[in-house]
Amino acid sequence: MSTVRNVIVHYHLFKNAGTSIDHLLRRNFPDRWMSYDGETPGCIIAASELARLIDDNPGHVAFSSHQIVPPLPVVDANIFPIVFLRDPIDRIKSAYLFEWKKQLGLDQPKGSLVEFIQQKFTYVRKSSVEDFQAIRMSNADSSEFVGTAGSDDEILDRACSFISSLDYVGIVDEFDRSNQLLSEYLKPAFPEFAASEVKANVLQDISVSNTQKRQAIRDEIGDELYEMIVARNSLDEALYQHARKHFAALCAKQLPVEQNQAA
What we know:
Layout: E1 5-11, H1 18-28, E2 33-35, H2 47-56, E3 62-65, E4 77-85, H3 88-99, H4 113-120, H5 132-137, H6 152-165, E5 170-171, H7 175-186, H8 210-221, H9 223-231, H10 234-254, H11 257-262
Parallel strand pairs: 1-3, 1-4, 2-3, 4-5
């Protein structure tokens, strides 16, 4: 009797610790992990296309992509989704340092954080730093990406429902604990999985709290622009707080008592 295939699917949301998770997956499954994106940065990979990719690569057990969106693919396999969410204001600073510094190979960003935000917010909800996480996670069509279809309440409800349906969610600013939870989550299906410490493509001091980071950003860009980025990421903020509660519940259920007490 053949056993049911187990498959890990990593929804690699931009600037959400995805590079670290990809390093971890590649380390554990060097010949059985696949990173797949479309030909252009703006591509979206729907669940139906992801299902074909999984079916066409039976030797692989882990798939990562910046461009895949919910719902989960329907395949003859047990799917183990990995999703990390992040404080949306902290995400903006990280995206800035990546796009306007590291990606360009510069010692300093090519412009100010204010200029970066102003450029990104030229068009409403058309960038990676405006309600990006909620919009991506709200997709519910297996064949296409519906983007911002529906009211804000509907977008948020869909995104929260998807996160609530998952047996694992990671939080970027609790990466070590998320890593511990990931190990417990995958261990039954992948006994050989080792969640060793890895932090790749980290552009900010991880010892600084989100409160401190937010205050530093406010000081850097001013009160008016700060209030604007908060307002224009209200769905991401609500989703992030929802995910934190789900993460805490999963930790309480799955992690050993000493790991929860130490966190």
